[in-house]
Design goal:
This protein is mostly helical. It has one domain. A three-stranded antiparallel beta sheet has the order 1-2-3. A hairpin with a 4-residue loop joins strand 2 and strand 3. The longest helix is centred in the N-terminal third of the chain and has 33 residues. It starts with a strand and ends with a helix.
């Protein structure tokens, strides 16, 4: 995919379809995450309902528990970096802007805020009022 790309839909019917498809995908990811979470619960409590620690688990149980944690992290990462929601604000019903350095989608509003933030940072740096480079590097990635 190109470094920068805006996916914008003008037609209201197509927007509704897009938003409903995003909702379906988000519901699927949420269901998968909850499934992994519920499977983890089996390892966290014994038969009496008493809470177990990681030290109480056998090596096989611990390995399976860690695999479920990794699956949850992967599901969360897929959701965070998909076009279904803005990486910054989480809005699911907006036109999206792809930022290649972050390999994530941002709503156009957040992308515009990042662009204007870069301008403000440059001005403050020029006057010696700002020294944080990480914010500057992030906002630079949105410039065309």
């Amino acid at each position: 995919m190109k470094d920068k790309r805006i996916i914008s839909i003008k037609d209201s019917k197509l927007r509704r379809i897009r938003n409903e498809m995003r909702e379906v995908l988000n519901c699927f990811l949420e269901a998968e995450w909850k499934n992994a979470f519920n499977n983890q619960k089996r390892f966290l409590y014994n038969i009496d309902g008493k809470r177990r620690t990681i030290d109480d688990m056998s090596s096989e149980e611990l390995q399976h528990f860690r695999m479920l944690q990794q699956k949850q992290n992967e599901i969360r990462k897929i959701g965070d970096h998909s076009i279904c929601t803005c990486y910054t604000c989480g809005k699911p019903d907006q036109d999206m802007y792809y930022n290649h350095p972050y390999r994530a989608w941002f709503c156009v509003e957040c992308a515009n805020l990042a662009k204007s933030h870069h301008t403000r940072i440059k001005e403050k740096k020029r006057h010696g009022e700002y020294t944080c480079d990480s914010d500057d590097e992030f906002s630079k990635t949105f410039l065309s």
